[in-house]
Amino acid sequence: MSTVRVIYHIARADFLERVRRYSFLIMLGLIVFLGYQTGIGNLTLELGQYRGEYNSAWVGAMMALIASFFLGWFGFYLVKGSVAHDRETGVGQIMATTPLTRPLYTFGKWISNFMVLMAMVTVLALAGLVIQFLQGESTGVEFGAFILPFIFIAMPVVAMVAALAVLFETIPFLAGGFGNIVYFFGFVMIFPFIDRMIKSNPAFEPLGMGLLMQDMQLAVWKVYPDYSGSFSLGAGGEVFAGTFTWAGIHWTVDLILARLSFFLIAVGLTLLGALFFDRFDPSRRKPKRTKSDASLNKPEPVPVSKPLPTVHLTPLSASSNTFSFLRLLVFELKLLLKGQRWWWYAVAVGLIVASFANTVENVRAFVLPFTWIWPILIWSGLGNREIQHNAHQMVFSSAAPLWRQLPATWLAGFLVTALTGSGVALKLIGTGDSIGLLAWISAAFFIPSFALACGVWSSSSKVFEIIYISLWYIGPLNKVDVVDYLGAHSNGNVLFFLPFSIALIVAAFIGRARQLQN
Amino acid sequence: MQLAVTNLGKQYRRDFWGLKYFSLNVQPGILGLLGPNGAGKSTFMRMLATITKPTDGQILWNDVDVVKSPDTLRAVLGYLPQDFGVYPNLTAIEFLEYMAAIKGLNAAAAHKRIDELLQVVNLVEAARRPLGGYSGGMKQRIGIAQALLNDPQLLIVDEPTVGLDPEERVRFRNLLSDLSGERIVILSTHIVSDVEATATRIALVNKGQLLREAAPEDLLKELDGKVWEWCVKSDDLPALKQKHIISGTIRRTDGVQVRVVSDSKPEAEAESISPNLEDAYLYFIGGRS
């Protein structure tokens, strides 16, 4: 079989497997929502007080930029998991017994990731056409001006994202929740770099914003010399002072080559992934160190056969069945914390100590946000651990799982939150900061409730990880008061987050009841 | 103690029923569910184990409707799913302690029971190792142990001997026989010898329907005079396979000795022999090898 045919079939099978999942429909739904928000003007491209006339070039560029930005940031989470799926289903081990090489496998996965993301770009492109038609400012569709931004702006970005998803999946420590967090902060940290690239070499700026910005700015200055030069993809709602006509970028060979060079980088990243890829060999995964490892150094003679003991089970008396919520809670806590390495606890304790060594303002603004991002991978297992580990049939067929196990899970999550945040709480009590303390209580309720609801309804840890970290970044870190659930710079919007937490707990119970009656 | 299933049905798609018109009364003892892959055994067991909700019909546990109040059954249920996982960071003891807490066992009873169960499933030496490092057979034995934690009145085991070595398989079959006195055990498998060794009743299932439910000896009685054996030339075997249900072949110097299930004497030289459960299975399921 030719190489191209092998890659085609890996990509095709993987693509079909993913688009036939219910979660793909949800993803498409979110993209349609994004398109709708753009259509009604809640999300728009603004150049100060001005915007472009809704012609094909402007709509195409705006939608391509939206695709580039949102799929660049969140598309990674939508496509990551394909290699893990092969590992979980056992298909990977079957493929490993074929002559399939590592580069071919990672290349096939890259193509599949790329196609999934391109399906979303296509939805946004179609939404763009509808938007142009509904706005009615320019009814003629100029196909080239409309489609080229998607090809040269959005496509290179999704190619890179697709490759990064493969690379992260092949590197063991980036394959799980930690990798999700690394990508999030990695994306945030490239913004200063993007700023510099826009000024120095816009064609090579990864998101493609630089090219559009320079070209559009020139078009505005021609008509409005007072234009300040600002450029943003914003929340809309502005009353524009005027519009301008923008005919689109003149795509020279240099520009095209510059943009297509991102495909080469993507291929490079994919091939780099092949170097790390373990080819589904469990022995290549670094085992966790355990005390029993020491015994491996002392091989003992293995008896050829030994008689097995005959053991009869003692019948349990009726008094043996006395359910203890406290006992279950202890085991739920153990389940949450088991497997964490010593350094995780060291940092958690360090953050508690830091609460006492800082002023209350600094504790609220800096120590608390970092204290309550640290256990994110513990919280993200709430509500989905049973299904993730395929233990749900045993847990769900036990006595009263809805009223015993689920509350114990939530409470264990709450206790982890409260314990890790205990230093901050003591500081707030000690300094009499009642507003801060109220926000702390509200957040301590909100975080495990949100994690539990996300976990139960999505049966995955990823949804909580992505939404929580975004919320954390926007609210407590970037001082957007309405979502500052920690009260880092505000009163914590307690009146919203406390009732919302209760609603989330109710949602988690409804979700679990639904799972039990499936 | 009684489990009554009436007209049970599960519809997966508009045009596909995994199980339909399934009625059965189960008394204490071991009920072996036999059927080919995809027959509906696991669907039936998941419905009994309160994991899957039936589309039609009723399941009564001691006259209590299990669909309406599943917790009544869950309190006395032990369930080993066909496909399950474990928490890889926990040791065997920790996992069983967790499951015991979920099932509502008090600490003292749980400790004693876990000690005994680890011996029964022969995992004492590995009991303090994380489950993530267990082999498939060891995980299967942990699954068996968790199903027995609460000394269940209804024990449902779906393909329990998959992944077990022959010695462990025999031990498990003996354990099931030991346990079966005052409880209902439902054992699903397509390994006829597992059922032959343990079951007090046998239910034959195919294409989502119950074909027959009887004691093993009654099933065998029905096969009396229907199992034949004789020797054929190797070249004649393919044609014979087209005509008859062949339940066994042994190669000999003068050809192939065939074992055939047939209502009438298939060949003049064929001799009637005693039937076994494999013959019965093939006869009722209608298999042709």
Describe the secondary-structure layout.
The complex is a heterodimer of chains A (518) and B (289).
Chain A: H1 3-19, H2 22-39, E1 44-46, E2 50-52, H3 56-79, H4 82-89, H5 91-96, H6 102-135, H7 143-170, H8 177-189, H9 191-200, H10 209-223, E3 232-234, E4 242-244, H11 253-276, H12 325-337, H13 342-356, H14 360-371, H15 376-379, H16 385-388, H17 392-396, H18 405-420, H19 422-430, H20 434-458, H21 462-477, H22 494-516
Parallel strand pairs in A: 2-4
Antiparallel strand pairs in A: 1-3
Helix pairs in contact in A: 1-6, 2-6, 3-6, 3-7, 3-8, 6-7, 6-11, 7-11, 8-21, 9-10, 12-18, 13-14, 13-19, 18-20, 19-20, 20-21, 20-22
Chain B: E1 3-13, E2 16-26, E3 29-34, H1 41-48, E4 56-61, E5 64-65, H2 70-74, E6 77-80, H3 92-103, H4 107-120, H5 136-148, E7 154-158, H6 166-179, E8 184-189, H7 192-198, E9 201-206, E10 209-214, H8 216-222, E11 227-232, H9 237-243, E12 245-252, E13 255-261, E14 271-272, H10 277-285
Parallel strand pairs in B: 3-8, 3-9, 6-7, 7-8
Antiparallel strand pairs in B: 1-2, 1-4, 4-5, 9-10, 11-13, 11-14, 12-13
Helix pairs in contact in B: 3-4
Q: What does this 3D model show about the protein?
A:
The complex is a heterodimer of chains A (518) and B (289). With 518 residues, chain A is an all-alpha fold. In chain A, 65% of the residues lie in helices and 2% in strands. Chain A is built from 22 helices and four strands. In chain A, α6 (102-135) crosses α11, α18 packs across α20 (434-458) and α20 packs parallel to α22. Chain A is globular, with a radius of gyration of 27 Å. Chain A starts with a helix and ends with a helix. In chain B, α3 crosses α4 (107-120). Chain B has ten helices and 14 strands. With 289 residues, chain B is of the alpha/beta class. The chains are: A mainly alpha (518), B alpha/beta (289). Chains A and B meet through α12 and α17 of A and α2, α3, α4, α5 and α6 of B.
